[in-house]
Amino acid sequence: MSAASNLSSEDQFLCSICLDVFTDPVTTPCGHNFCKNCINEHWNTSDRCQCPMCKEGFNTRPDLRINTFISEMVAQFRQSAQQKTSSSEQQESKPGEVPCDVCTGTKLKALKSCLVCLVSYCETHLEPHLTMSRLKRHQLIDPVENLEDRMCTKHDKPLELFCKTDQTCVCMLCTVLDHKMHDVVPLKEEYEGKKVELKKTEAEIQQMIQKRRLKIQEIKHSVDLSEEDADREKAEGVQVFTDLKESVERRLNELIKTIEEKQRTTEKQAEAFIKELEQEISELMKRSTEVVQVSLSEDHLHLLQSVQSSNIHHPPPTKDWTKVSVPPSYEETVVRAVVQLEEMLSIEMKKLVKAELKRVQKFAVDVTLDPDTAHPQLILSDDGKQVKHGDVTKKLPNNPERFSCCVFVLGKQSFSSGRFYFEVEVKGKTEWNLGVARESINRKGNITMSPDDGYWAICLRNGNEYKAAAGPSVLLSLKSQLQKVGVFVDYEEGLVSFYDVDAAALIYSFTGCSFTEKLFPYFCPGVNDSGKHFTPLTISPVNQTA
Hints:
Elements: H1 2-11, E1 25-27, E2 33-35, H2 36-44, H3 68-91, E3 112-114, E4 119-121, H4 123-131, H5 133-136, E5 140-141, E6 161-163, E7 168-170, H6 172-176, E8 184-186, H7 187-295, H8 300-310, H9 333-361, E9 378-380, E10 386-389, E11 409-410, E12 419-425, E13 432-438, E14 455-461, E15 465-468, E16 474-476, E17 484-490, E18 495-500, E19 505-510, E20 519-524, E21 537-540
Antiparallel strand pairs: 1-2, 3-4, 3-5, 6-7, 6-8, 9-10, 10-21, 11-20, 12-17, 12-21, 13-14, 13-20, 14-15, 15-16, 17-18, 18-19
Helix pairs in contact: 7-9
């Protein structure tokens, strides 16, 4: 009867035309109900305007309006049907959900699992645990699978406690037998503690993720900056080499023009000489003819008188051509042109180095001397900017950082990435070492300075011998005494360069270096030699506006 009643209830809300639940229900004058769209389409395709149910005809097409009462009833019916469908779907177990262990046939979704019964229950089968006083004492949890894993395999009791000593879950009997005197707490207490730890771990992981995201942004920004630098360097390189190419071509054209002008001058000079020689030849040939004519005369008196009166027996006056020549005059023409080109290149090189020096000076850092590394005979200024050698050995702790034999000192600041630059005044000194050193260098006993030993430095010896400690050392040829030295390091590029600051000239570069440790500025003021060399090395501020 219930099923029939339900069917009858459904039929009330079905349109007889589309056989579906009413949409915008309307009522005809004869009292029958249809979907508004259905009845209108029916009449639009029919010759007569009549009711599809009772066939009652209408002289004029009725003006149909939505029946609000039936419309509301249909809406309630739709909502009720949807709730029934939804309830049925929620109760039925889906893949991945815990099914009820009691249901036979279709397994419904479990709402709770009992740790005492070790059974999962759907809403219907859970009811005894909610109503019966004996079952109310059972511990219910959100539905889980494999409830047997929550039982102690040794005592067949629920795992309700946690042994902090052995870091394992235990039952009540375990605490009395196997875990007696251990630090045991309820599972919930340990659960809350672990939740806090996991939350902290999650926060740490999120922080690590954030740091790495920031690092990605930093790397991308570095790539962008590198691209900008590359574009600028390419533009400058193209400009410089274009200028050089144009200058070389200009010099070449000038050389060719000079040679051609010299050739034209030589040709003109030769033409003048030839013309003069041809004139003399003409005169000589004329005299020769006269001599021949006189000599052919058989009249004694006539011949003698002709010779005496005309001086014909002497050649006409001519130029001494023995020392006259037209030698090629191109000696050193090309050499002089190349020398001029070299001078021009030197000027351009100075401009480039000066521009490069200005760029590296932007990476200036504040360097101060570290007294904990200074040899006991070194004297450091209070501001940590000057160092000189003294004759007295101070009593200082022989800590691992301190140099024991060589009069060296390092800067306090260390660098393990990026680029940095500093300047040191060396004016008036006859001996010094400057550069950078890695953290793990030998600081005790005799020390060899070379990149293999962890030093990238240049030095002055005997007042005018400049060398790069390249292992073996490289003698440096400088045009003037150094007054101030700039030291630039590009850690990632593996580059250490030294500059003559006053002359804006590059002194020497260590290239292709592989840095894996911290780098420290390195200084050696040289030995005092009883007061002869008492001028200090001074770390000077970098003037970036010059």
